[in-house]
Structure formats: C-alpha cells, structure tokens
Amino acid sequence: MVDHLLDHVRPYLDRSVEDRIAYIRAPRWIGHHVAMQAHERLDELLTRPLALRTRGLMLV
Predict the structure, then answer these.
(1) Which residues, at least 6 apart from 38, have a Cβ–Cβ distance to it below 8 Å?
(2) Predicted TM-score of the model (pTM)
C-alpha cells in the first residue's frame, strides 16, 4: 500500500498529523539543471563586490 512512496518519506506515516502537514508545507528545492544555473547566477550577483551601479538579472 505504501510502495509508491519514496523511502525517505515512509517514516512520516507513523508521525502525528501536525508533523506530516509541516513536512508537506516545508520549502523544497527542485534541482532542475536550468534552475541550478539560475541559482548559480544569483549567487554570483550576491557575492560580487559592491559597486555604484549593481548588475541585475531578470528571471522569467
């Protein structure tokens, strides 16, 4: 009956309803390669030295 669940999710079946809801609502990062590239670009912008005219990036 729980064969469709991932191994790391199965222990949550024995937890309280509140714990399961908190797990479901927790933020997740989906590691798609384009998302990873965008994340790397944003990290580069955050770690650049301060400048009078800061570079920006538009995400669509």
Answers:
(1) 59
(2) 0.47
